[in-house]
Amino acid sequence: MRQDTQERHVEHIPGLTNNEAEYRAILSALGSLPNDTHVEVISDSTVCVMQLLDKYRVLEPRLVDLKQQILVLVAKKKLTFTPKWVSRRDNLAGRLLSGR
After folding, report:
1. Residue 36: closest CA among 3, 64, 78, 5
2. Among the listed residues 82, 22, 77, 26, the one whose alpha carbon sits nearest the alpha carbon of residue 53
3. Euclidean distance between CA atoms 84 and 51, whole angstroms
C-alpha cells in the first residue's frame, strides 16, 4: 500500500507460489514509481528479501526471471532500491490484503 495515497493494487493469479506473488507485487510497485525515486520495499518474505539482497541464491527459474525483471526496471528507472524484511505481524500491507 502506498503510504502517501493509501492506494493498493490486488491481483489474483491462480497457480503462483507465495514467492512468485511477492516478486510480482514488488515488480508492480516499482513499475508505478517515477524515475529517480528512492524506495524501501518492505516485505515479510525472508526468501525474497534475502534473494534481492544477494544473500540467498535464486534457484527457481521463474524467480530468476522475476528478479531479473526487477533489477532491469530498477536500472532503467534509476531507482535507489532497498529491500527490507519485516515480520508478518508487523506487515501492515499483508494484514490489509488478508483481511486481518
Report:
1. 78
2. 82
3. 11
Q: Tell me the C-alpha to C-alpha distance, in Å, between residue 85 and each of 5, 15, 51, 77.
A: 22, 25, 11, 23
Q: Tell me the per-residue pLDDT of 7-55, one tens digit each, with 9 for 90 and over.
A: 555 566 777 898 999 999 999 999 999 999 999 998 989 999 999 999 9
Which tens digit of pLDDT belongs to each residue from 74-87? 999 999 989 999 88
Helices 18-31, 61-76: crossing angle, 10 deg rounding = 10
Question: Which of these CATH numbers, 3.10.180.10, 3.40.50.11720, 3.30.420.10, 3.40.50.1820, describes 18-98?
Answer: 3.30.420.10
Asked if residue 51 lies in contact with residue 9, where contact means CB atoms within 8 angstroms, the answer is no
